[in-house]
Design a protein that fits this description.
Glut_rich_SH3-bd, 4 strands, four-stranded mixed sheet, SH3BGR, 42% helix, disordered C terminus, Thioredoxin-like_sf, 5 helices, Glutaredoxin
C-alpha cells in the first residue's frame, strides 16, 4: 500500500497548515504508513506537477493542499478527509479496504 500526502511547507495560510498537521496526526495515530511529499521543495517539481494535474480541484479550479493519494489515485483533499472521519469511513476513504469490506465491518471507531 502506497499512501502519499502532498503538502506545502511554505504556506502562510493557517487553515492549510492546521489541516496538514491534522492529516499527519490522524494517519500516524492509526499507524498508517504514508509518505509526506512537500510540493514546495525544488526536488519535488515532478510530484508538484503530478498533484496539479491529477489532484482534486476546488470550485475555482485550484488544487488545495493537503491532497491524499493511494497508489497514485486521488482519495481527496482535507475536507474529504474530515468527512470520512466524521462518517467513520476513513478506511474506505483511504481505499485500504473495499466497499464490500466496509459494509461488513460496519463502522470505524474514532
Amino acid at each position: 500500500m502506497v499512501l502519499r500526502v502532498y503538502f506545502i511547507s511554505t504556506t502562510g495560510r493557517r487553515d492549510i497548515r492546521k489541516g496538514q498537521i491534522h492529516v499527519f496526526s490522524v494517519l500516524s495515530s492509526w499507524k498508517y504508513d504514508y509518505e509526506a511529499v512537500d510540493v514546495a521543495a525544488p526536488e519535488n517539481e515532478t510530484e508538484r506537477d503530478f498533484v496539479i494535474v491529477t489532484g482534486k480541484k476546488s470550485e475555482d479550479g485550484k488544487v488545495v493542499l493537503p491532497q491524499i493519494f493511494h497508489e497514485g489515485k486521488c482519495c481527496g483533499d482535507y475536507l474529504d478527509f474530515l468527512d470520512a472521519i466524521e462518517q467513520e469511513k476513513l478506511q474506505l476513504f483511504l481505499q485500504t479496504i473495499s466497499i464490500s469490506e466496509g459494509e461488513a465491518k460496519d463502522t470505524i471507531p474514532c
